[in-house]
């Protein structure tokens, strides 16, 4: 791992083209170009940005949201497919790492999926949110432990989580144990108001401090006109405002540029990797500050499938990840085909 480099990162706060996969994808491609023109080597987009976050599920009861749910199915992203092909070409053309949130369709199910493209256009990871939150459970299926992985990319060791996955300390620790240098966080934005923005700030700054890594956080944004499109009820419209905090945080928990809390924009900052060592010299949660004799993480890092034949019986055995003081041993594999490898998620913790 290299700790003597500087990487320029961009976090995009942006509104989707509601009800249009093609329209939103075009905005993604334009933003990638703008980030590259600003010298960015990494660009991060909001949670399930393509085609749009399912805000309808937050303001409609399940019995009434069938029409909008079906429309989301029609506009959802296939992986691989035209959207991933277009983003891959843009990443390769500009030599930029792209982290994009999409609503992924796999047969009859939708998933909250994070895609990581390397600077050569390679789709390195497709991970699914391990547990959709509250209203989201009526929209998305669950992910598995195969997505809790840190990647070697052109900008360093990179990990990603979506929204309230950051409130699962074991999921965060799984990435910390793999020595992530840049953590990419994604939230929907335009929800719950100022309280959500304040909670988000606390959450990402805490992870930066605890992990000793940079956090690049992107949130979505809805215009007043878009909010009215989602619901005509003025009382419900109020819960689709605020809740935006697009920011880049240093390993010392310090914002590296002014956060964006309203409207569209792009937060850009230079990440000096020497700050990782500066922070971890004092407190390394997975190194000299760990106590594996007392506390350890056990992770089922397998991708699971609902079907396998007898010849594949051995592949059903879980891969185990053990994060111990200063060491990280695993036979974890990156599964690029998690579209068909659906199943169990984090199995919990154990005392050692």
Automatic annotation (TrEMBL):
GO terms for molecular function: nitrilase activity. InterPro entries: C-N_Hydrolase (IPR003010), C-N_Hydrolase_sf (IPR036526), Nitrilase (IPR023919), Nitrilase/CN_hydratase_CS (IPR000132), Nitrilases_CHs (IPR044149). It comes from the Bacteria. Residues 7-273 form the CN hydrolase domain. Transmembrane segments: none annotated. PROSITE patterns: CN_HYDROLASE, NITRIL_CHT_2, PIPLC_X_DOMAIN. Gene3D superfamilies: Carbon-nitrogen hydrolase (3.60.110.10). Belongs to the carbon-nitrogen hydrolase superfamily. Nitrilase family. NCBIfam families: nitrile_sll0784 (TIGR04048). This is Nit6803 family nitriliase.
